[in-house]
User: Fold this.
Amino acid sequence: MRILLAFFMLLVSTSAFSQEAMRRWRKMNQVRNDKFDLVLPEAMRENNIDMWIIMNREGNFDPLYPDMGEGYVGSVGYYIFTDRGGDRIERSVLGIDGYLLEEGGAYDYFGSASELKAFVEARDPKRIGLNMSKNIGGADGLSHSGYSELAEVLGKKYEQRFVSAEKLASDFRSRRVASEIAIYGEAGELSYTLAERAFSNEVITAGVTTLEDVAWWLKEQLFKNNLESSFGMPSVYVTGPEGIAATSTDRIIQRGDVLFIDWGVGLMNMYTDMKRMAYVLKEGETGVPPGIQNAFDQAVKVRDVVKQTIKPGVTAQKAEDAVYEALTKAGFNKMPGFNKPTELDKTDVIIGCHSVGNWGHGIGPSIAFFNPVQLGYEIKPSNLLSIEFFAYTKVPEWGGKKLRVALEDDAVITARGVEWLYPINPRVLLIK
Assistant:
């Protein structure tokens, strides 16, 4: 009887796993079809590219390989998109096959890699976009040898028509469809729920648990839930009067510690990037010390200003200028550089509202000093942004030293501005 029961449970478990695998595959197919129908035509035409060739080699896939549906690549293979007029872009695959790719319904034609030259000649594109970029790694999938091979196969005539698809790749990835945003919301729910569990007595015992223990617990949750992450070890760190004291090390969590998590999950090719903050109560304490609470409250006020100011239809650089202008009017100080707080009694702020989506740091418009090229891209409705910033406020309990409060949650840009995709960080979490 026990053997039969175990066998039955195995069947149930296997069936549930297959259903979840199929659910995720179907949703990703919907995203791909929607993006090919709705985003690809405008992105190719805005960038004046007639044909987009994405080259892949076995063991060396282009960063956009998951977006395109993956598949089995032999020696070499290509996803090829051709603007032949009309409302639809022709989608073809040469030298890549497989059940999941072919059954996804996104492509019009599957052929051999050896057809490439004849395929291109028949369409005679004037500008051929290739994934080459000096600035954005996610748009730089074509290797030097891959370029040489394309030039040799297609000949000088078409080599002279090669152009960088850097901006096309950015536009295609960062302009989101509804099915994609739905997945991102699901990923966000998992991300913040796990982070808040990690910063609780379920996981942490003061004087016993290490920062590394918490980070490994989060890694284990990724494994258990069949999730990924675009980061390595989750950043679980202690911030004190002198700044960050330790990150994901064997440092034991003590009473009175101010803790932060910086991490994200990957679900169906969508990756979050968010933070949570916690305080470990000292003996006899029932709440967050006033100075630390005030620092958090000031950061929340900063978040409100940032949220209210960012709007679509302008470059990320203009959005950044507008945010700092609004923060200054609200009484905050623009910090002169990252981790360079002033002695002013004001809260110092530096923002880094970067693109998110298919990695924790995406390739779309980015209101962040560390993405200089993407600062020049226009913010569009449906772009995903991590609303990230660092606010430094003096804490009397620390002798007037400033506490760096890092807030970060993910949002979608709509015609109305910033809209959250899941419940954002509302408070300092308490660990008893």
